[in-house]
Amino acid sequence: xxxxxxxxxxxxxxxxxxxxxxxxxxxxxxxxxxxxxxxxxxxxxxxxxxxxxxxxxxxxxxxxxxxxxxxxxxxxxxxxxxxxxxxxxxxxxxxxxxxxxxxxxxxxxxxxxxxxxxxxxxxxxxxxxxxxxxxxxxxxxxxxxxxxxxxxxxxxxxxxxxxxxxxxxxxxxxxxxxxxxxxxxxxxxxxxxxxxxxxxxxxxxxxxxxxxxxxxxxxxxxxxxxxxxxxxxxxxxxxxxxxxxxxxxxxxxxxxxxxxxxxxxxxxxxxxxxxxxx
Length: 278
Hints:
alpha+beta, Phage tail protein beta-alpha-beta fold, 35% strand
């Protein structure tokens, strides 16, 4: 669409746009202004936004009727509702993110359909999907939907793996520096750096990448000086907490309270779980 108008009545310009697009038009009596516009090869929406918004007016389309009104004036039919199925993020996060983007007439409501126990075949209920119901003006709805597409994206998974190793330390075969010694250190010149140990905030003594660490552990096991006790791992979403329980069951003999004899024996077996939660 191309329009070239100089100091023209805004109502005449709007009627021309309606005629070019084949839309019926209704203009509020409060819409009174003159406009100068020189638009070339623009969409109908872009032309209406450029002409109406700087002058304090807005519009909405109901079926094939273009309604022009002052901005901020509420009219029946200008609101539309969309139901969005979220794939990756929680409805509460969406509500918080879009709260400042809604117009005074807009609203967001979260909704989660549930199945009853009879429908599932098990006790209780289960949440299947998380949806949000958005009610907003036609003018602002595309902006809201575009923002939802940008934030409803997959969250990276983080895998955490830990190895618990039992090892034997043999200092007779060790080599290197005894960091507990009291040997003065001098690095060129007459100034003495100090005695070991001293504080080294920005010095990296040694680092191993995952492959080097794995090879070092295999070497320790091959020498018979180390034994892998446990290798727990857990996968969680980025910036989300996760727990992994490392536990073993041990046999402990104990007596019943009050010295009660159990099947002719004073002691009964007990199997407590010992371990840690990471």
